[in-house]
Every structure is written in C-alpha cells, then in structure tokens.
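<goal> How does this chain fold?
<body> The protein record starts here
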Amino acid sequence: MAQRSKIRVAICVATFRRPELLRELLDGIARLTFRKVHTPQIRIVVVDNDELATAEEVCRKVSVRWPVKYVVEPKRGITHARNRSIIEAGSVDFVAFIDDDEVPSASWLDELLWTQSEFAADVVSGSVWPRYAPDVADWVRGGGFFDARVSATGTTRRACAANNVLVGSDVFRHVTRFDDAFALSGAEDTHFFLRVAQAGHRIVWSQEAVVFEAVSAGRGTVSWILRREYQTGNGWVFSEAVVDNRLRIRTFRFSKACGHVVIGSINAIWWSVLLDWAAIVRSLQRVSMGVGMLAALLGHRFLAYQNAGSEQREPLTRIAGRLERTSEP
C-alpha cells in the first residue's frame, strides 16, 4: 500500500440538464475500488448549473456509500459551477474533477492517488475513452476521433483538462481559481492548468486512471467533431494569451495555425481522391483547429456554451453539415 493514512478526497461534478448521464456517473463512483492505496475518505459534490434543480432527484435517490452534497449554482457558466464545487468541497487533501457525461473505471481514483504519491505530483490527469451509443456510425468508431491520448504514466504535462483530474488542495491556495472570462467559451481548464504549471506545480499523466465518456449519435457527426476542434483551437489561443501574450508567442501560434490550415486542406484533397471518409474528416479537423486559432488571434471568442441546447455553427461546421447531408462514408 502506498498510503499510510486515510486522506480526504472530494469528487466534484458540475452538471447541467443531464440527469440520466449523471445517474450513470454516480453509480460508477459507487463501484470504485482501492487496491494500490488505502480507501480514502470521500465526499461527492454535485453542483447543478440549472436553476431549475433538474439533478436534485437523481442525487437524492442515488445509492452511494459516501455522502453526496448537492447544491445549485444559478449563475450560468462552467467556471461558476467548477469554482462553487471547490468551495463546497471544504477541507480536503485533493479534489478530483470528473464530467457529468462520464463513468469512471473501478480503479479510477485508486490510480490517480497512486500516481500522485508515486511521482510526487501536484496534479494528475487521466485517460478519457469513448463509450459509444449503439447508433454511432462505424466510421466514427473506427476513425479514432474520440480515442484517448496514450502516454507513459508519470509523463510531465504542460496543461490538462478537468474532465479527469486530481488536484492537490495546495494548488488552489497558490493559483487563482477558474477564470470567469471562460464561463461561456470553455477552455477554462486549459487556462487554469497552464497557470498551475507556470506557478511551478507539477502535472503528470496517469494512463491507467480511466474514465469513459458518452458519445451519442449527435456527437458522432462531422459537424460536431469539427466544431469541437474549432473550439479547442480557439480556446487554447485565448488561454495561452492570458498566460503569455508576447509577440513571439503570438507569431508562433499564427504560424502553427496557418500550418494546420494548409496541411489539413492538402490532406483533405488527397484523401478525397482515395475516398477515405474518416481520413478526410481527420484532415478537416486539423483545418478547423487552425481556423479556430486564427479567429482567436483576431479577437473572436467562440462562446460554445452561450445557448444551452443550441449550438453555434462556425463556417467549417456549416460546411460539414452539408457534407453529412450529401455524403455517406
């Protein structure tokens, strides 16, 4: 056993109108097991970002052996929900963030805590693998669009996401919490963890700390895939600019964005000749990311979460929508 004393962990979940997925997540947390570390003292914090409290019934009825604290954060935006969850976590040693459309593997928290201890890390980020709905197209399943990154456990990272991460409580004392400027755009986690690394805290990877993200048929489309890539590129540039806005950095990012657009476009043309649908979309992903980066450099922020239930459609995703209606893989 790597741990000699019981530690305190708050598992924090921000949710918005996904009661069934939240139920699956909480059921998954109930199945957590611990073999590498002693079973920690766990509390679960669910912050509902819906003022109608649509997640309350799920939290009230769920059967989990650890206490579930449910609160409503009426101020819309992912940063408000995440920051509220940190406050509601109270006095703990670690905060573990997981999204409301994910289900952890049984060893998820065990692996995060073991990796933190083994590598003396301040932050541990883990793998996110897809769990496809039955009606997701085969070309999406085989295309690798939602596959997790693969790195050796203990690998140092510059930044990470908050959909599967363990954060030491000391980090929140040294780094300002999630920035409300990212409340409706996302990338608040990229921005936060860039600042965490800049402050000298160590972020490492755990390949074995696995969670499974729900991929519906609505996500398994060209337009959704390209929209996500546009959002990623756009959010990264805004996150990076807040941390380091020197001309040299912006020039490098501009060059890289142009490279994504040019190389992605050439590849898309090549693969269209070979009629490889998945490869075409992967090439368009690169184009979409580059366009998102260029838009950010011009000052356009993509507010992905401004209108819940309706998605903004950038130029590339509008084109993708037409491709979906006229082409089949």
Notes: The chain is about 45% helix and 15% strand. Residues 309-329 have pLDDT under 50 and may be disordered.
